[in-house]
Amino acid sequence: MPHPAIRIAKKSDCIEISKLVHAIFPKAHPSFSPNDTFFASELPGFGLVGFAHMRIFKSSVLLQGIGVLPQFRRGGLGKSLISYVIKWCEKNHPGQPLKLRVKSANLPALSLYLKEGFMLTKDYGKSYRLTKARPN
Ligand SMILES: CC(C)(COP(=O)(O)OP(=O)(O)OC[C@H]1O[C@@H](n2cnc3c(N)ncnc32)[C@H](O)[C@@H]1OP(=O)(O)O)[C@@H](O)C(=O)NCCC(=O)NCCS
Fold first, then answer.
1. Which atom of ligand 1 has the smallest separation from the CA of 77?
2. What is the pLDDT of residue 70?
């Protein structure tokens, strides 16, 4: 797998990002409000293959969604995206916890998050809240 380039999505990426989100989450309606930040993972020769969607709140940051196109999974792209996002949050929102909600049956995502240091902070039954606490 070639090395991905990860970057904050620009306004001009909106259409490509929307297509990507729909390909991975067909029912999703991504919002591009001022509180939303999208990260794009681009593979040379293939274009955008993965995204992460962050929503910034006053005292926390929510990982609203993350996904990699099916044909590019299991090659380390999900891990590189989440690592990038964690570092970005540490730099830009220091001390704020990074939260997400994941379906309890989504074992690939759960495994990825736990390996990246997230902890289960609330059990809703069919889904979990995971939090990555960060030092100030
Ligand atoms: C979750 C997702 C982003 C992982 O992306 P990926 O590029 O395949 O992940 P990576 O190759 O970087 O794998 C990193 C770790 O994730 C876990 N993982 C990924 N795919 C897995 C699978 N099919 N089964 C079990 N664990 C898996 C493993 O712990 C893996 O570490 P390892 O390679 O040491 O085993 C991808 O499966 C995806 O897009 N899923 C659909 C969208 C989704 O469910 N998003 C999360 C919503 S909360």
1. 7
2. 98
Tokens read off for 37: 């930040």
Ligand 1 site residues (CB inside 6 A) read 24, 66-68, 73-79, 102, 106-109, 111-112, 115
Ligand 1 centroid distance, CA of 14 (Å): 24
Closest ligand 1 atom to residue 102 Cα is 48
3-state secondary structure of 88: helix
Regions of the chain with pLDDT less than 70? 135-136
Around Cβ 62, how many Cβ atoms within 10 Å?
Answer: 17
- Write the CA distances from 125 to 55, 59, 101, 103, integer angstroms: 24, 25, 12, 9
Q: Write out the CATH class of domain 5-132.
A: alpha beta
Q: Are 64 and 53 in contact (CB under 8 A)?
A: yes
